[in-house]
Amino acid sequence: DAGVIQSPRHEVTEMGQEVTLRCKPISGHDYLFWYRQTMMRGLELLIYFNNNVPIDDSGMPEDRFSAKMPNASFSTLKIQPSEPRDSAVYFCASSGDGNSPLHFGNGTRLTVT
Amino acid sequence: AQSVSQHNHHVILSEAASLELGCNYSYGGTVNLFWYVQYPGQHLQLLLKYFSGDPLVKGIKGFEAEFIKSKFSFNLRKPSVQWSDTAEYFCAVSGSGSARQLTFGSGTQLTVLP
Question: For B26-54, b where at least 16 C-beta lie within 10 A, e where not — what string?
Fold first, then answer.
């Protein structure tokens, strides 16, 4: 099992640019989560999907953020336009059912200058 | 709304010392409780979990945690730490059943001196 795969590992971009983060969950997992980690706010849940359907996006900070899950093996988190305060590590995680622990990817470290 | 408090932001210990990291939660129902560890530059990994049953839970790498319902606590312990335990430790809570959102504590950075 390859685990949760995220790309890219690092992303450096200029303010105003569009950023797309990618995630491949563990095969067979029905839940997919996007988290953001910063020093100031810790780990925050942005959005999660069940069977490719967004269930709760109340953690998405602004309309500049959007997430999609077109199929069971792929999800994207897009920021457009990006701002310096979006700089953080973004983690994707997946789990098998309602009570299974989350398996995290290695994260994408985003720096917006 | 559920919340998690980790009282120690940074703990520094010498090798072989005993460890206890505090975690208190607030939630108005049956909970699932977790401890995750994040080694420097790596992703979060599950240390142990509590869903039901024996409140003393044993996890990987010699860690254990005790669920004390009356105190809303789920403290993490290890009798003798090693330098390789240097990492950040996160306590997390979710409602049992259909509530899948994990709420994480702010984390405790553990530094073990050789």
Answer: ebeeebbbbbbbbeeeebbebbbbbbeee
Contact B104 A43 (CB under 8 A): yes
Query: Which residues of chain A does B105 touch, with a Cβ-Cβ cutoff of 8 Å?
Result: 42
Contact A99 B32 (CB under 8 A): yes
**Closest approach of chain B CAs to the CA of A15, in angstroms?**
25
Which DSSP category does B114 fall into?
A: -
pLDDT digits (tens, 9 = 90+) for B67-106: 999 999 999 999 999 999 999 999 999 876 554 678 899 9
Q: Which two tokens stand for residue B81?
A: 């730490």
**B44-66 pLDDT tens trace:** 999 999 988 999 999 999 999 99
